[in-house]
Amino acid sequence: MSNKNSGPIERMLAAAMKVEAHEVRATVLSFLFVFTLMAAYFIIRPVRDAMASDWSRTETSFLWSLTFLFSIIAVVLYGFVISRVRFSRVVPGVYVFFAASFAVFYFGTEFVADPILVDKAFYVWLSVFSLFHTSVFWSFMSGLFSKEQAPRLFAIIASGASIGAIVGPAIPTFFAQDIGVMNLMLISAVMLLVPVPMIGALERLKVGELGNEHLKADLRQAERLGKNPFSGFMIFVRNPYLLAIGTFILMYVTMSTFVYMELREFLAIYERPERAEIQASIDLAVNSLALLTALFATSRLTSRFGMATTLALIPALMVGGWLVVAMIPVLGALIGLQIVRRAGNYAVTRPGREMLFTVVDNETRFKAKPVIDIVVYRGGDMVTAWLHTGLRETLNFGLGGVALAAAVVAGIWAMAGVYLGRAYNRAGAEDE
């Protein structure tokens, strides 16, 4: 659509960020949607991360195993529910459910005497939530924008997540002592209800200004998915394209777990408030870098160099980063690696990964995607947590040895990115 008759704001967005005039409202609403979700999550994430340094490697690995188990249960229940309700209720229903769960958790803690049990239950439940709410959001986005729009707009929308992740930690940083740590759950619960009315507005824009009524997954229709709650698992294991996405995520999870575990041990010498402060500082650096990259670089990177380069870029950087850590195994190098990894994921890898689902069908988007985003991710967490424990405690690897092993995994991750980028281009060409 021409920008000839557009206003100054629309022309500025089109020039700076490649947003067309008819896409502005949908992009802004989507931005606010994910901003609210991530702010709600990051209000309480530093509290969860600060807890981990109180526990041993074995305890942490066990909690990650529990997270994997509960993730499977959550995905199966989601598959059961989504097969029996209208699409128009699926996405808002997820956020209403999690809001209610935080309220129940808040009031339930009043009746549990063991604070360690509460901490561990909170750690597991928040870990399940952290993947579920973003998986559903990006499923919705992949059915809202076209394959042509996604490379230009997804990075901009994802920058809302980065800003939310900057604003969110500011609330506990400045007000936790006045509000109380557990009361932060109620704030998150209320914030999760804010995007609910945005969903209907975005669906109206999809068939109106965006002109994407031909896309699948119109949530306004009474269409229902197949009723088998395990069909998402079967679709995943039978589809080479989805298996490649699962492998890509598994490699990413290995990077995440190894950095997380090593940081956890470095920070064990600090008290919990100091750990939370360091974690919040990392969050600030990560999300500031991710925001600038997403707004001004990612869409241009994808448009100019294509999906293969976009998906392989951060893995390639991680190869070099891990080699640096192997040579200089100190806290500063590890924090730098964590900042690059997470910022690169938010600004480049995650938007690119979500574009992969713009060429799949409805059943895949809403049933197989959560299997990949949640079960594969948390299964990878569990396996790599025990792998890290084995490398450290059985094989007596130091940080340098762990870093060299991780560099090899990062190389495999980069190759998976190239393969997926090319497969995405082929799938898109077949649809045209």
Précis, in short:
This protein has helices at 8-17, 24-52, 57-82, 87-108, 115-142, 150-179, 183-193, 196-207, 231-238, 240-266, 272-327, 331-355, 362-394, 399-431.
Structure description:
The longest helix has 56 residues, at 272-327. This protein has one domain (8-214, 228-431): Growth Hormone, Chain: A. The protein is mostly helical and 432 residues long. Helices cover 81% and strands 0% of the residues. The chain starts with 7 loop residues before the first helix and ends with a helix. The radius of gyration is 21 Å and the shape is globular. The model is unreliable at 1-5 and 217-222 (pLDDT under 50). Helix 2 (24-52) runs antiparallel to helix 8, helix 6 (150-179) packs antiparallel against helix 11 and helix 10 runs antiparallel to helix 14. It has 14 helices and no strands.
Main sheet makeup: none
The global form is globular
Strand content is under 5%
Quickly name the level 1 CATH class: Mainly Alpha
| Domains, number | 1
H/E element sequence: HHHHHHHHHHHHHH
Question: What's the structural blueprint in terms of helices and strands?
Answer:
Layout: H1 8-17, H2 24-52, H3 57-82, H4 87-108, H5 115-142, H6 150-179, H7 183-193, H8 196-207, H9 231-238, H10 240-266, H11 272-327, H12 331-355, H13 362-394, H14 399-431
Helix pairs in contact: 2-5, 2-6, 2-7, 2-8, 2-11, 3-5, 3-13, 4-5, 4-7, 4-8, 5-13, 6-11, 6-12, 9-13, 10-12, 10-13, 10-14, 11-12, 11-14
